[in-house]
Design brief:
alpha+beta, Methylamine Dehydrogenase, Chain H, 2 domains, four-stranded antiparallel β-sheet, globular
C-alpha cells in the first residue's frame, strides 16, 4: 500500500539544535587539552553537556520507529491496562496500575510522577474531549476518580461506591460509565446515578450520538440466550434500554468506540471489538459489517480502538491475542477496507493511547506472557514503513506492510547506524571515548 499521502505535516517536536552540538564539541576539545588539576571540573561539564543533549533528544521521536520507554514505577510483572494521552498535549500521559496508583508524565513517558496512591486497580483512564483538563479514572471496586487539572490532582466521586468501572464515555451534556451493575450517568462526572441494565455486567460502552437525543450503545460479557454477544441500545441518554441483536460473531463485546463528531448530523462511525473479531457500523449500531476474517484482519480478541483526530476513516485497532499469538496493532485510512500492521515489538497489546495530531504519537503497553514482562513503547506514525526492535511478525492483514523479525548481529548494527538517531549516537560515543582517554591520561599522570 502506498502510504505517502497518508499524513499531512508531522507535529512539530523540538530537536537538538546546533547550539547543543557546538557546546558538546567545545567540551570535548577542552577535555583533550585539560590538565590534571582541571579534570574533575571538566568531567562535570561533560556530564552536564551529555545530560543537556539527552534532554533535547528525549522530546524527539524518529519517524515511524518503535522506541522503548522506561519501565513504569512499581509495574513489576503486571500488565498495564489503563493509559491515556492528553488531547491538547501529546507529551502529557496518565497511566494506572493494578496497585491502584495513578502516574503522570509530562515528557512523553520519559519520567513519571505518582499523583494518586489507591488500593483498587485502575481499569480505565479517559480524558473528556469536551472539557479541557477533566480526566476520569475507573477502578476495580472503588468507583471513579476525577481530575479537573489534567491529572495533577484527583478526588473521589459519589454514587459509584463499590462498583467495578470498566469503561467511560462522554456526550456534550452527559458522562456515562459501564460497570459490573449496569450503566451509570452523570452531568459532570462528580455525582452519579444508576440509569439502567441493573445486574448486567457492562464491559463496553460508546456514545454514538453526543447531541440530544443522546444515543448510547453498551456491550456485556453476561451470558445471553440470543445469538451473538449481548448488545444494548438507548436513544434517550440511558433512561431506557433495548436489547439488540446485530450480526456480530463472538460471545463478548470487548470494546465499542465511536468516531469523531461529524460536520453535520448526529451519526458517528461505530467500531466494535469482540472476542472473535472486529466490526464497523455506519448507522449508530443498528447494523455492522465485519472487518476481520478471511483476507482481512485475524479473527481474534480486539480490545483497543482509537480514531485519528477528526478523521472518520482513519483509526487504529489492537489485540492482546486472547491468550494466542494472534495479537498485534493495525491501522486503516479507508474505514477498514484495508489494514496495515505497525509490527509492534511484542504482539500482545494491553493498552493504546493515540495523540490528537495529524501524524499521531502512539503510546503502547505490551505484555509478554512467557516471562510476565510488561513494557511501554512510543511510536510517531508518519506513514512510513515501521522500524524498530521487531521480535516477531504480526498476522498479515490486507495491504499490510510486511515486518521483519529481529535478525541480530550485523543487521541490527546496520539498521542502528542508518537510523535518524545515528548522529547523536556517534556524538555520544565520541564523548565517552574521549572521557575514557582523559581518565587514563589522568591516572598515568597521578602515578608519576
Amino acid at each position: 500500500m502506498d502510504c505517502r499521502d497518508r499524513r499531512l505535516t508531522p507535529a512539530w517536536r523540538p530537536k537538538p539544535g546546533p547550539a547543543v552540538h557546538i557546546a558538546a564539541w567545545v567540551i570535548i576539545g577542552r577535555l583533550v587539552s585539560l590538565s590534571s588539576r582541571r579534570l574533575a571540573a571538566t568531567l562535570v561539564a561533560l556530564v552536564g553537556g551529555l545530560i543537556v543533549s539527552a534532554g533535547a533528544l528525549a522530546g524527539t521521536l524518529p519517524d515511524s520507529t518503535w522506541v522503548g520507554l522506561p519501565a513504569l514505577p512499581q509495574q513489576k510483572q503486571s500488565p498495564l491496562f489503563a493509559l491515556a494521552v492528553d488531547p491538547t498535549n501529546d507529551q502529557a500521559l496518565i497511566s494506572g496500575n493494578v496497585q491502584g496508583s495513578l502516574l503522570r508524565s509530562t515528557n512523553g513517558g520519559s519520567t513519571w510522577t505518582s499523583v494518586h496512591a489507591g488500593r483498587a486497580a485502575i481499569t480505565t483512564i479517559v480524558f473528556d474531549p469536551f472539557t479541557p483538563g477533566r480526566v476520569l479514572a475507573g477502578t476495580r471496586g472503588s468507583g471513579v476518580l476525577i481530575s479537573k487539572d489534567g491529572g495533577a490532582t484527583w478526588t473521589d466521586v459519589t454514587g459509584l461506591g463499590g462498583r467495578d468501572v470498566r469503561v467511560i464515555g462522554f456526550a456534550l451534556t452527559l458522562v456515562a460509565a459501564g460497570t459490573d451493575n449496569g450503566v451509570y450517568v452523570s452531568a459532570d462526572g462528580t455525582a452519579w446515578k444508576q440509569s439502567g441494565l441493573p445486574s448486567t455486567s457492562i464491559d463496553a460502552l460508546a456514545v454514538a450520538a453526543v447531541h440530544v437525543p443522546i444515543h448510547l450503545v453498551a456491550g456485556s460479557d453476561t451470558a445471553s440466550s440470543a445469538a451473538g454477544p449481548p448488545l444494548y441500545d438507548s436513544v434517550d441518554g440511558g433512561a431506557t434500554w433495548t436489547s439488540v441483536t446485530p450480526a456480530l460473531s463472538g460471545t463478548v463485546v470487548s470494546r465499542l468506540v465511536a468516531g469523531p463528531l461529524p460536520p453535520t448530523g448526529n451519526v458517528r462511525p461505530l467500531v466494535a471489538g469482540t472476542n472473535a473479531g472486529l466490526f464497523i457500523s455506519a448507522d449508530n449500531g443498528s447494523t455492522f459489517s465485519a472487518l476481520s476474517g478471511g483476507e482481512l484482519l485475524p479473527s481474534t480478541d480486539y480490545t483497543q480502538v482509537a480514531f485519528v483526530t477528526d478523521h472518520h476513516d482513519r483509526f487504529y485497532v489492537a489485540s492482546d491475542g486472547g491468550g494466542s499469538r494472534s495479537g498485534g496493532l493495525w491501522w486503516t485510512h479507508d474505514k477498514g477496507q484495508h489494514f496495515s500492521s505497525l509490527v509492534p515489538p511484542i504482539q500482545s497489546i494491553t493498552a493504546l493511547a493515540v495523540s490528537n495530531t495529524e501524524a499521531p504519537t502512539l503510546y503502547v503497553a505490551t505484555f509478554r506472557a512467557s516471562d510476565h514482562s510488561s513494557a511501554l513503547w512510543a511510536y510517531h506514525d508518519t506513514g512510513a514503513p515501521p522500524q524498530g526492535p521487531f521480535s516477531a511478525v504480526t498476522p498479515t492483514a490486507s495491504g499490510s506492510r510486511p515486518g521483519k523479525p529481529t535478525q541480530g548481529g550485523l543487521f541490527d548494527f546496520v539498521r542502528l547506524v542508518s537510523s535518524s538517531q545515528a548522529p547523536y549516537i556517534a556524538l555520544g560515543a565520541v564523548a565517552l571515548l574521549v572521557l575514557l582517554l582523559a581518565a587514563i591520561s589522568h591516572f598515568r599522570g597521578s602515578r608519576r
